[in-house]
Write a structure and sequence with these properties.
By secondary structure, this protein is an alpha/beta fold. Helix content is 19%, strand content 27%.
């Protein structure tokens, strides 16, 4: 089996397991909540026809309604609790922590995260989380957006078992967002707890509430530097926005 991964910027990744296409946290417009992207989107929403869309939480840079409405195809959107009233249209399934759904041969389990809930004063109760996707015996973990916690990663490991690919956030922690975002070094610590085979960094270099810090954090450089120190460099498979990689998987 072949896995194709394409970084479309921030936490938006196109993941293709042979015939199954998954899109994570779609944000393919020029701005989110009035804040402009630092790097333009490499594709238009109309160029994508996913089978499944995974929404980690309702923040504007992870749930962009303009993008969602322009996607092609007959897709199912999975979200944490409280997001249906924001999206409104289409096939939407809200999941509680560790609730599982099966779609087109994929088993998808919603997992918890440590992040601030809500979207706006009108929508303050939307939940947060990530997902473990299992397809033909291969598991990937999409963490969405989270702060670091050894307890959280250990829980993911306990519930998820053998994770092959871990999509972990590394940016958005400066200047005062550490309460809700992990650092690159913490992402590597979490990766070691998971015992996953491959780390694919997400949530960096594309957008920031304070645009200057998207580049000032140097999140990817820090991740790669620390991965050398930890002897994990060969396990980190970084993709810049617009780049794609293919992985051959034995099943």
């Amino acid at each position: 089996m072949k896995l194709q991964v394409e970084n479309l910027g921030h936490s938006t990744f196109r993941v293709k397991f042979d015939c199954l296409e998954i899109l994570t946290d779609p944000f393919l417009t020029e701005s989110a909540g009035g804040i402009k992207r630092v790097v333009p989107p490499p594709l238009k929403p109309e160029e994508l026809s996913p089978d499944i869309v995974l929404i980690s939480h309702a923040h504007y840079d992870h749930l962009d309604l303009k993008t969602l409405k322009r996607l092609k195809g007959d897709f199912t959107t999975l979200t944490p609790l409280g997001c249906r009233e924001i999206i409104k249209k289409g096939k939407i399934i809200e999941l509680k922590d560790f609730e599982t759904v099966s779609i087109k041969g994929a088993k998808i389990t919603k997992i918890p995260a440590i992040h601030n809930k809500g979207r706006s004063p009108l929508h303050m109760k939307t939940e947060v989380g990530g997902y473990i996707v299992e397809f033909k015996g291969v598991k990937l973990l999409f963490a969405g957006d989270t702060a670091f916690s050894e307890k959280l990663y250990s829980l993911w490991k306990e519930k998820g078992g053998e994770i092959k690919f871990a999509f972990l956030p590394i940016g958005g922690f400066m200047p005062f967002f550490r309460k809700f975002h992990q650092t690159p070094e913490e992402a590597l610590k979490g990766f070691k707890i998971l015992g996953a085979e491959t780390l694919i960094p997400i949530h960096f270099g594309t957008w920031h509430l304070i645009p200057y810090y998207a580049k000032g954090e140097r999140a990817l450089e820090r991740l790669l530097a620390y991965s050398y120190i930890c002897s994990l460099r060969e396990k980190v498979k970084e993709l810049l926005p617009g780049e794609k990689r293919s992985f051959d998987i034995e099943t």
